[in-house]
Hints:
Shape: elongated
Amino acid sequence: MIIDKPMNTHKPTSNFFGNIGKVAIALSVLAAGMAFTNPPRDKYLTYASGVLQTELENTVCKDSRVPQALSGVAETLIGSCKNLLTSQRSSIEHLLDNTTERQNLGVASIYQTQLGKKTYPTVAAFGNFVTLPPSSENAQN
C-alpha cells in the first residue's frame, strides 16, 4: 500500500509580529487623532466659563425662601442675577484665564484652575472636556 505525503507540510506559525504591527498602526492613528482634536486654551475657557456661570446661577441666583407676597420681586431679582452673569461672561473667562495652568501632552491637555483654595482639574481630549472633582489646598497638608 502506498501512502502519499500531504503536499502542504507547512505548519501555520504564530501571527504575533503581524498583530503587533497592526496594533502599532492603530495606536499611531489613535494618537494622531487625539493630537488633532486636542482642544486649545480658548475652547477650554469657553467651556469653563459656561460651567462656572451655570454653577453660579444655581447657587447665587436661586430662589430662596421668600414670602409668597414677594415672589414677583424674587423672580425679578433672579432674572437680573442671571442677566448680570451672562453679561459678565467675558470677565469670567478673563478670571479663568489668569487662574488656569495648562499641561499640553500633545494627545491631551490637563487644565488646572485655581479658584479660592480649590483646584479644579480638567482633562481635555477628542475635543471634549471632563472636569474632575476639585482638590483642596488643605487636603494636601
